[in-house]
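hiii, so i know i said id send this last week but things got crazy w the move. better late than never?? heres the sequnce for the chain we talked about at the cafe, plus the structure i predicted for it. fair warning i was half asleep when i ran it
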Amino acid sequence: MTECSDWHVLADRMRRCVACSELAASRQHVVVGEAPPSARLMFVGEAPGASEDEQGRPFVGKAGQVLDAALVAAGLSRDEVAVANVLKCRPPGNRRPLPAEIGNCRGWLTAQLDLVRPALVVPLGLTSIAWFLGPSKLLLREVRGRVHDVDGLRVLPTYHPSGALRYGPNGEPMRALRADIALAASLAT
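okay and structure toks below
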C-alpha cells in the first residue's frame, strides 16, 4: 500500500478494495471510519455491523449508542474523536473477522493511525485489542484500564460496547467501559 497524506484519498482507495472477495461481494458500503482533523482520541472496533454496513458509518447501531453515551458521560462528543474498525467491511452473518481478513485490512488501519496521530488509541473488544497487543491468549480484564505502549502508540484497551450490552446497563463490563472512556478522555487532553 502506498503512503497517503489525506483521509479522503485514503477513504477513496479503501472503497475500491476487493482484497477479501467474500466481504467485497456482500457489503453495501466500505465503512472507512470518521476522523475530525483535531482528534486526539481514536476508538477502534472490530468490524461494521448491519447498521454500519447499511449507512456506511462506524458505530451507528446499538453499540454506537452505548459508545456515544459513554463519550457524553466523559465530557466528549462523537464529533471530536476518531472512530474506525479493524475491518472496513461487514463479515457475513456478523461473524468474527478471519485472520486473513484482518491481515488484508491491516494496512488501512495503520494508514489511518498515521494520518490521525492520536494521543491515545482505545481498542474496543478482543479483536481490536489483539490487533494492537498481539494475538496471544488475552484476557480482557487483565489488559483493560491501563495504558500500553505499542510501537510508540499509547493504547488503552477496553470492552466493546456490544459486549458490554450483553451484561446489561449495570453489569461489570458496562461499568468498566464507562470508566475506561472517562480515563481515556482525561489522558488525551
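btw The beta strands are 41-45, 82-85, 120-123, 148-150, 153-155. thought thatd interest u
miss u guys!!
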